């Protein structure tokens, strides 16, 4: 019976509130960690995209330099062809994304507009240098001017990528801060409205149980003492009538003792 009562006490509302608190903390922790991981992944993507965009400026200058060398001296045609391929592929990846390198699809309209402005200059550079047999007839002044225009627009795009990345980081930081504050608020509310009342209730129940135990124990001990006394007298008593009377008293004490035991169990059940 006592084990059953204790199990009921353990499965009370206070423990349900405790489980609710733990569950809430776990869920909020998972959400915050998910946002942090997403933020880190997004920062890696932004860093890669900014790096590739910055490299485009270097490639445009390197292509013009190699054309100059090929026209007026000696050059590595293989290196020039490789740089042109990287130049074209990077431009496509920055707009359409690239799963292999991890560059995401461009979803910024303002940056896309600048890529649209950039495209004619990029096309001129690639078209002018595509046929190596015609390198000597290339208008270097025009090529240099187109490269400079490409460089100016590409600088703007790189700055836009950088600014967009910083804004994303700020937004995620604000979300993380709001979640942290919300988590703290949830914990405070649960402590004040669930944990503290549960602790107070358990303390009151414990005090009542102690009082019940004290009273019932004294009553129990009193009846046990009477039973022992009656039993002792019964052993030495010779008169049959007196023995019957003692047995009657003894049965009354046993009945009272049973009532005390039942009252103790009922009191414990009420506290549960």
Automatic annotation (TrEMBL):
Keywords of this entry: Membrane, Transmembrane, Transmembrane helix
Transmembrane segments: 20-40, 172-195
Occurrences of domain NarX-like N-terminal (ranges): 38-136
Pfam families in the record: PilJ
Membrane-topology descriptor: Multi-pass membrane protein
A GO CC term attached to the entry: membrane
Compartment(s) of residence: Membrane
Principal localisation: membrane
Name the record gives this protein: PilJ/NarX-like methyl-accepting chemotaxis transducer
Taxonomic source organism: Maribacter spongiicola
